[in-house]
Amino acid sequence: MNLKKKKQLAAKTLNVGKDRIIFLKPRLNEIKDVITKQDIRDLYASGAIILKEIKGRLKNKKPSKRRGAGKVGIKINTRKRDYIILTRKLRAYLKSAAKNQGLPKKAVEELRKKIRNKYFKNKLQLKEHLAQK
Fold first, then answer.
1. pLDDT tens digits, one per residue of 25-45
2. What radius of gyration do the chain's Cα atoms show?
């Protein structure tokens, strides 16, 4: 007795694969007479059709942690950001120092070029450089 079409119908009705459907041998005559999805559901409820368990690790697979661009906490390459912060800090200090000490415009321009080219590693170096002049 070929029950291939009945198995396809049962798989479609119960939303599982064909390999997971098992028909009980003593009730094959009932299964042979099935023609509708409701008949399949009734036989499943009564126990004539059984579903195999999912084998392997698929049934206990954990959901993946999402690690997109917005979720990553650390920034790997922060060189540009560090450069911007340092440059702004040094330029602000140079502006206030030029105002207080009365530095000539040409000297301020040269110091700004040195700041842009990362001549000074920090504010302390800039202060020492200004103290020497």
1. 998 888 888 889 999 999 999
2. 39
Q: What residues does 21 pair with on adjacent strands?
A: 51
Half-sphere exposure (Cβ direction) of 103: Cα atoms closer than 13 Å: 21
Domain ranges of the chain: 4-54, 79-132
Placement of tokens 């440059």 in the chain = 87
Contact 28, 1 (CB under 8 A): yes
Alpha carbons 102 and 97: distance in angstroms, whole number:
8
Rounded to two decimals, the pTM is 0.45
- Give the CATH number of domain 4-54: 1.10.1650.10
Residue with tokens 């009980």: 24
- C-alpha–C-alpha distance, residues 123 and 128, integer Å: 9
Count helices and strands in the chain by DSSP H and E runs: 6, 2
Look at residue 2 and give its three-state secondary structure: coil
Token readout for 83 is 């450069």
pLDDT in tens, 55-111: 776 666 777 777 777 776 666 678 888 999 999 999 999 999 999 998 999 999 999
